[in-house]
From TrEMBL:
GO molecular function, a single term: AMP kinase activity
Domain description: Consists of three domains, a large central CORE domain and two small peripheral domains, NMPbind and LID, which undergo movements during catalysis. The LID domain closes over the site of phosphoryl transfer upon ATP binding. Assembling and dissambling the active center during each catalytic cycle provides an effective means to prevent ATP hydrolysis.
Protein name: Adenylate kinase
Reactions accelerated catalytically: AMP + ATP = 2 ADP
Keywords annotated in UniProt: ATP-binding, Cytoplasm, Kinase, Nucleotide biosynthesis, Nucleotide-binding, Transferase
HAMAP family documented for this protein: Adenylate_kinase_Adk
Residues annotated to bind AMP: 31, 36, 56-58, 81-84, 88, 147, 158
Sequence similarity: Belongs to the adenylate kinase family.
Enzyme's top EC category: transferase
Principal location: cytoplasm
Source species: Halorubrum vacuolatum
Any one biological process term the GO annotation gives: AMP salvage
Localization (cell): Cytoplasm
Record carries keyword Transcription regulation: no
Amino acid sequence: HRILLLGAPGAGKGTQSKLLADAYGIDHVTTGDALRANKDMETEYGTPRSFMEAGELVPDPVVNEIVKVALEEADGFVLDGYPRNLSQAEYLSEITDLDAVIFLDVSEEELVGRLAGRRMDPETGEIYHVEYDWPEDEAVQERLVQRADDEEDTVRERLRVYRENTEPVISHFRDRGDLVEVDGEAPPEEVFERLKAVIEG
Ligand code: AP5
Ligand code: ZN
């Protein structure tokens, strides 16, 4: 499978990609996680951190290279967090074909609540939520942190950047007739069933 999962910040791309990667034995290719793991890497544009903590996009050449290398190494993938603008979409079409392009549709009100309550385990990278998905293990609870870009002002900027740069990508795939839209406003297990139905449909 070569699956592209599109959606706004907080739509559940990371949560669902992980489930899909496990279910199908494919790679979870995520530019967000890759950049967070290399946030202090020096590039000719500065560090990824400087863009990410402001809620802005990291420059295309940096991100395109990450995706190119990851897709070359992958035997099947679910791609999460890329492409985020039309120029990245063009680049992606040059390096791979896709079997499924899925848009996880979630209302803005729900997105804001999910991002505000998200917590991350710095040791495992596991994602939780203060209301919807809280770990039972107290040692885990105590070490959870908030993602640096989940602070309120940064969330607002990420949603603005999404509307300006990434919504045109969604429209591009929709206009080509390639887009399958899935309602992402349901419990994670239910959304996962919907995604599997599309992929195996
Ligand atoms: P990235 O890491 O990709 O962030 P994002 O797109 O803003 O998406 P998120 O990770 O915030 O949300 P998600 O959809 O994965 O939701 P999640 O599953 O975690 O990018 C971060 C930054 O990196 C960018 O701002 C940019 O600077 C840079 N970057 C990355 N890619 C780039 C690119 N291609 N070009 C340029 N720059 C790039 O879920 C969210 C929360 O909701 C969690 O707490 C979860 O537990 C909960 N949740 C999930 N599903 C449900 C559900 N069904 N019901 C209730 N709660 C749920
Ligand atoms: Zn994510």
